[in-house]
Design goal:
Structural class: alpha/beta
Number of strands: 10
CATH topology: Spore Coat Polysaccharide Biosynthesis Protein SpsA, Chain A
CATH superfamily: Spore Coat Polysaccharide Biosynthesis Protein SpsA, Chain A
Shape: globular
Number of helices: 10
Largest sheet: 10 strands, mixed
Order of helices and strands: EHEHEHEEHEEHEHHEHHHE
Helix content: 25-40%
Low-confidence stretches: none
Distance between the termini: 29 Å
Number of domains: 1
Radius of gyration: 18 Å
CATH architecture: Alpha-Beta Complex
CATH class: Alpha Beta
Mean pLDDT: 93
């Protein structure tokens, strides 16, 4: 606690027709043991039972609204205008925080240094089975040369509001992969400092209707790589870096397989 003020964490969920999974997402936030959380839900004008579900939790949510939007990152940018937190976490409407104590643990790690960003490991959740995904310290070069956002997962990233404001939000010209571009832009800022935490932050749900499963990210990812200078890196370095990074990632996760497990709560 600096100057007597506790760290405020803003968690933002954008959703549209998310009735199927949203209850689990909300429950994972409102049951956190850490009390200083601003939870914002931005609905894109759902036509199923999503709005009714959100309204049931109205007293436990800091702010919410329902209005048509122009895509996920448009909705994130709009909703983040309400953010007051020292750090911001974007939690997808089909994902969950890993445990009721995870925000308390993260804040405990943030407090001593208050760096620009923190990120942790991920749990992948698929049809009642869960797999641990362990990560490692990664900066701009590693994230770019890996050609994916895997090593700093967006749903496991706590970024300072100061850095978010400096970036000016997400690039809405990328409809599906703007999070990858956003994190690369953040990591390219002069003097930016962050840390990988050894905690499993978020349970990332894999299902047939997710953007990740749709394959829509691929074409945008190539444009993002070009934007950030990937193809200007000499080919031998690109090749060696790519394979060494992914081999290391596979090795540290070699014993992590899907196992049956109950979700939080």
């Amino acid at each position: 606690m600096a100057n007597g003020n506790p760290i405020l964490i803003t968690i933002l969920t954008v959703c549209k027709n998310s009735e199927r999974f949203l209850k689990d997402t909300i429950d994972s936030v409102i049951h956190q043991t850490y009390p200083h959380i601003q939870y914002i839900i931005a609905d894109g004008g759902s036509t199923d039972g999503t709005v009714g579900l959100i309204s049931q939790y109205e007293s436990r949510i800091s702010a919410w609204y329902s209005a048509p939007d122009q895509g996920m990152y448009f909705a994130i940018n709009k909703a983040l205008q309400l953010a007051k937190g020292d750090y911001i976490l974007i939690l997808n409407s089909d994902d969950q925080l890993s445990s009721d104590t995870i925000i308390e643990k993260v804040v405990g790690a943030i407090e001593p240094g208050r760096l620009d960003y923190y990120y942790g490991n991920m749990l992948k959740w698929k049809e009642g089975n869960q797999k641990k995904v362990r990560l490692f310290p990664a900066g701009f070069s590693r994230l770019l040369l890996s050609t994916h956002g895997t090593f700093i997962p967006h749903p496991c990233l706590f970024i300072s509001r100061k850095i978010h404001e400096q970036l000016g939000g997400y690039d809405e010209s990328f409809f599906y992969a703007s999070d990858y571009d956003y994190i690369l832009r953040a990591l390219s800022l002069p003097g930016i400092k962050g840390r990988h935490l050894p905690y499993y932050i978020t349970r990332f749900r894999i299902h047939s209707q997710s953007i990740t499963a749709s394959g829509k990210i691929e074409s945008e990812r190539k444009k993002i790589l070009e934007k950030h200078g990937f193809y200007q890196v000499p080919y031998p370095r690109r090749l060696i870096s790519y394979y060494s990074l992914w081999v290391y990632y596979k090795l540290i996760n070699l014993t992590h397989n899907y196992r049956p497990v109950q979700p939080p709560g």
